[in-house]
Structure formats: structure tokens, C-alpha cells
Amino acid sequence: MRIEVTIAKTSPLPAGAIDA
Q1: Residue 16: what pLDDT?
Q2: Which letter does DSSP use for residue 9 in this model?
Q3: Which residues contact 8 (CB under 8 A, 6 or more apart)?
Q4: What is the C-alpha to C-alpha distance for residues 19 and 11, in angstroms, rounded to an integer?
């Protein structure tokens, strides 16, 4: 889920929630 991780970093949302 590399794309989701990238979005998590660019978004103000917690990356941990999307990365997990």
C-alpha cells in the first residue's frame, strides 16, 4: 500500500491509521 502511505504523508491525516 505504498500509494496509500504516500497519500497519508501528503494528507493531514495520521499516516499510521492509513499505513496500518
Answers
A1: 60
A2: H
A3: 14, 15, 17, 18, 19
A4: 12
C-alpha cell at position 7: 497519500
Residue 19, pLDDT above cutoff 60: no
How much is the pLDDT for 17? 57
Gyration radius of the chain's alpha carbons: 7
**Residue 16 has which C-alpha cell?**
499510521
Average pLDDT over residues 1-20: 62
DSSP letter at 15?
H
